[in-house]
Design a protein that fits this description.
It contains 15 helices and no strands. It has 263 residues and is mostly helical. The protein is globular and about 45 Å long.
Length: 263
């Protein structure tokens, strides 16, 4: 989960100012957490407490109204009758990594991903993106087999994961859809040799960089293990105290604890 938040922070300064290279400062002086991190923490809170994703997302997101939410989400957030708005956007995938870390079987993870996505993103593509991301996190931490991840996610969700970043990068543009973000984020992980390399791959595509790196970062952490102390400490420095407290509790209970050691 810290890997997802770190990816968001690292990619935050390049959203709208895309780079097509892996050679950039890992933590730019202006980097910050965005809605990706806020909603990831909200999902973690729901899992820690009562699995009421709608309640937790609204509670946490309302505390941070200027995190950078999309217009439809913002209206949903402040509605007296919050209903899903048939979104296919990548917001369902960017917040889902805690689901991939917390549950023990693929079937449960896929079911929980639907429950988490459908509070807002009840379009089939929105649900598919969340499920694919959560399953990739689960498989990364349980199989440590990139070939298996590539094949299983491709077969179940129909994503073309056999493309190469060098072929995608020149033509890739800003894309907020799940179908235009999730496959590319998974490929960024598949072509990596470390957590940092995975996040640099994601940002180098030049698209919705914070969300790409958030999705990639969660999968990469699950595969490579705890992020480095430098990255962990930067996340703690950037996050407000209450968001870090939830993150720390979640990581201590599920998989990778917030001191950087594995369970």
């Amino acid at each position: 989960m810290i890997g997802a938040i770190a990816g968001d922070i690292i990619g935050s300064v390049y959203e709208g100012r895309p780079v097509k290279t892996k050679d950039f400062p890992l933590f730019h002086p202006r980097c910050r957490y965005t809605d990706d991190s806020v909603l990831t923490v909200a999902v973690a809170k729901a899992i820690l407490e009562d699995r009421d994703y709608l309640k937790a997302v609204r509670e946490i997101a309302r505390k941070y109204p200027h995190a950078g939410y999309g217009g439809l989400f913002y209206r949903w957030l402040h509605s007296n009758d919050p209903r899903p708005y048939y979104s296919w956007g990548n917001g369902s995938a960017m917040r889902i990594s805690p689901v991939g870390f917390a549950f023990d079987t693929a079937d449960v993870i896929l079911m929980e991903a639907v429950r988490c996505a459908e509070i807002t993103h009840n379009h089939p593509e929105g649900v598919r993106g969340a499920q694919a991301t959560a399953l990739a996190v689960f498989l990364a931490r349980t199989t440590r087999d990139k070939h298996h991840i590539r094949v299983r996610v491709s077969e179940r969700f129909g994503y073309d994961l056999n493309r190469r970043l060098e072929d995608i990068r020149p033509f890739y543009r800003f894309d907020v859809s799940c179908q235009g973000t999730v496959p590319e984020a998974i490929i960024a992980f598949l072509e990596s040799d470390s957590y940092e390399d995975a996040v640099r791959n994601a940002v180098s595509l030049g698209g919705d960089s914070d969300t790409l790196a958030c999705i990639t970062g969660g999968i990469a952490e699950a595969y490579y293990g705890p992020v480095s102390p430098l990255i962990r400490d930067k996340v703690r420095e950037c996050l407000p105290g209450d968001l870090w407290d939830i993150t720390e509790r979640f990581c201590s209970r599920y998989g990778t604890d917030a001191s950087g050691s594995g369970t």
